[in-house]
Amino acid sequence: MNFKKIKAPINTETIDREELEKKSGKNIYGTICILERISQKISQKIKEDLDKKLEEFNFINKNNLEEIFENKEQIDLSKFYEKLPKSTSISIQYLLDNKIKIN
Q1: Class of residue 82 by CB neighbours under 10 A (exposed 0-12, middle 13-18, buried 19+)
Q2: N or C: the chain end with fewer CB closer than 10 Å?
Q3: pLDDT at residue 77 in the model
Q4: Rounded to whole angstroms, how far apart are CA atoms 38 and 99?
C-alpha cells in the first residue's frame, strides 16, 4: 500500500453507508472495525516512515549541538506529512477503490 499516491480526500466527506457495506460485504459495524484496523496499520506505517526520515536530521544535529538552524529539507518534509490525508480517509479510499480484500 502506497499511502503517498492515494487520492483520498483531505477534508471530511460524507460517504454512503450502503456503498461501504456493499464493498466490504459486511454490515456497517463490521466494516468500521475492519477500516479501523487498516487505518491503524496505515498510521503506524506513516509514523515509521516519518521517524526514519527524521532520524537523518537528528544525526546531523547531534554533530552541531551549539548551532541550531532551519533546515529547508526538514521543513519541506514536515509540510509533506502535514498535507497527507488522515489514515482513516486513506483506508476508506482503499476500500472504495477495491485495493483491499475483505473475507
Answers
A1: exposed
A2: C
A3: 86
A4: 12
